[in-house]
């Protein structure tokens, strides 16, 4: 082997070694689907990549910071917030957001934990701002469906009696709330809009803010319960009064029916007894005409059976009444 050939092999080996070393130091990196990266060199941003693929960096110098490209969620802490009527409620929100500009995001926060802390403050502030400017009914309801149902009930009760309409109106009044002009959905949009005034400068896009739950504070809960109890007691009392009125009405009708039935029964019985007496008199008359003497005897025996029953003694039998009892001839 000549001297020049040896020199060529040496250079070839050196180049191969350098390539191997270069490959091991990681000049290539992969951006996966759903990810985005920021390339920094000595602390300064030199490039960003938001599309998946294979990219090149300067080994040992460039640093790759990876962020998620997908939609992220943020669960806020419970807040005790006063409404426009100065009634305190406890609100717990959840938010959806994404990193729209990785370069701004890196300059603002560097890490996701820092972003969560700052974004939580912004969401809490916008939530408090919107809630304090609106009534409680606007926050807990999204429509006037309750009022519409109450109006429907009132229209359907037109054919019912006055007492029933009064009760239904009382129930409807207790269920009727303030007229909703915005509703919870609109307030959520306002919260998002309020927060989006600040987050774009951080490279963040806030998609929405939604109250995960809205609870009454302890003092408001007691007040609401007392009002509900009072309204239900009013409705219950109205039903009791109506029931007592119906009871008296039915009892009066029952007594009237009873008197009418008894009167009809008495009239019918008297009529039957009169017919029976007439038939008995006719039978007696027919029997008397057939054998007047036997008829007289038989009637006297029947009379003795009734009048002398339980009599211990008779002081005188010298009267015509006892003619069949002590006279052998029956005369």
Total helices: the number is: 10
**Averaging pLDDT over every residue, what do you get?**
80
Write down the secondary-structure element order. Answer: HEEEEEEEEHHHHHHEHHH
List unreliable stretches of 5+ residues: none
Helix residue percentage: 55-70%
Alpha carbon gap, first and last residue: 189 Å
Oligomer state equals single chain
Strand content: 15-25%
Shape: rod-shaped
What does this structure look like?
This protein has 331 residues and is an alpha+beta fold. It is built from ten helices and nine strands. Strands 6, 7, 8 and 9 form a four-stranded antiparallel sheet that branches. A three-stranded antiparallel sheet has the order 3-2-5, with helices on one face. Strands 1-4 form a two-stranded antiparallel sheet. β7 (79-82) and β8 form a beta hairpin. It is rod-shaped and about 190 Å long. The chain starts with a helix and ends in a 5-residue tail after the last helix.
Topology, please?
Elements: H1 3-24, E1 28-31, E2 35-41, E3 44-49, E4 53-56, E5 62-68, E6 72-75, E7 79-82, E8 88-99, H2 102-108, H3 112-132, H4 136-140, H5 145-156, H6 162-175, H7 183-195, E9 204-216, H8 218-290, H9 292-307, H10 323-326
Compact summary:
This protein is an alpha+beta fold and 331 residues long. It has ten helices and nine strands. It is rod-shaped.
């Amino acid at each position: 082997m000549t001297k020049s050939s040896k020199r060529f092999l040496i250079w070839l080996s050196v180049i191969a070694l350098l390539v191997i070393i270069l490959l091991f130091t990681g000049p290539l990196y992969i951006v996966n689907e759903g990810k985005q990266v920021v390339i920094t060199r000595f602390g300064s941003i030199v490039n960003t990549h938001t599309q998946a693929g294979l990219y090149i960096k300067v080994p040992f110098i460039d640093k790759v910071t990876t962020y998620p490209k997908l939609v992220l969620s943020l669960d806020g802490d419970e807040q005790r917030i006063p409404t426009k009527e100065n009634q305190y409620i406890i609100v717990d929100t959840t938010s959806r957001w994404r990193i729209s500009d990785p370069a701004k995001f890196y300059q603002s926060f560097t890490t996701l934990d820092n972003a969560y802390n700052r974004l939580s403050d912004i969401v809490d502030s916008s939530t408090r701002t919107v809630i304090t400017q609106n009534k409680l009914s606007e926050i807990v309801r999204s429509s006037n469906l309750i009022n519409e149902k109450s109006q429907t009930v009132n229209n359907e009760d037109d054919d019912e009696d006055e007492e029933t309409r009064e009760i239904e109106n009382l129930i409807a009044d207790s269920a009727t709330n303030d007229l909703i002009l915005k509703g919870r959905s609109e307030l959520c949009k306002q919260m998002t809009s309020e927060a989006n005034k600040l987050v774009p400068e951080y490279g963040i896009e806030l998609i929405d803010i939604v109250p995960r739950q809205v609870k009454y504070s302890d003092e408001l809960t007691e007040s609401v319960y007392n009002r509900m109890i009072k309204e239900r007691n009013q409705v219950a009392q109205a039903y009791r009064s109506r029931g007592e009125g119906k009871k008296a009405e039915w009892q009066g009708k029952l007594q009237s029916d009873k008197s009418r039935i008894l009167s009809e029964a008495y009239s019918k019985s008297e009529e039957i007894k009169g017919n029976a007496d007439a038939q008995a008199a006719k039978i007696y008359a027919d029997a008397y005409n057939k054998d007047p003497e036997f008829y007289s005897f038989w009637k006297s025996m029947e009379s003795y059976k009734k009048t002398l029953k339980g009599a211990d003694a008779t002081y005188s039998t010298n009267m015509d009444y006892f003619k069949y009892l002590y006279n052998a001839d029956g005369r």
